[in-house]
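Work through this protein:
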Amino acid sequence: MKYPNSLQELIEYFKLLPGIGEKNAERLAFAVLKFSDEQVEGFSDSLKNVKTKIKKCEICNNLTENDKCDICLDQSRSSDVLCVVENTKNLILFEKANVFNGKYHVLEGLISPLEGINPEDIKINQLINRIKDEKIKEVILALTPNIEGETTSGYILKMLEGYDVSVTKIAAGIPVGADMEYLDPLTIQMAMQGRNKLS
């Protein structure tokens, strides 16, 4: 049976989401059909708001609705320790694990020559400038433990040669190749507490 065009269109949009196949997309579309008019309007508004209101923090690249994110504005946090993460999802993982009270820097990717992602394509230069300007004393590399993460960590370490900054890396409790978003708070806590000094 063929679905009506408007329903099929909604199914196709749901299929664009990561991990959503045909059956899940159909299930979600039928769930939307059961929404009240008010819920549909709210759902539609929230989709629009995510695209129109969310922007990147001008300091750390975290997601925010303002020029600067709440973390960068929080004066109770250590301002001389910077945790470097691949993306905002990983930043939120560390926040949920409640293991870090400094500031963050979101690279927005990892160096991956095979995918055509070079150092200048991610926020490494911005990181180096922050380390200089904000008098950072420790940089914690909390990147995904895969080839791209190791390549990026090595590049940052080389860029920081000659700087008066301690560089540490989260401990090896995180399995190689593991996607950070699937780690539990305890694993993250142990990795942060057992971090290794690189320079």
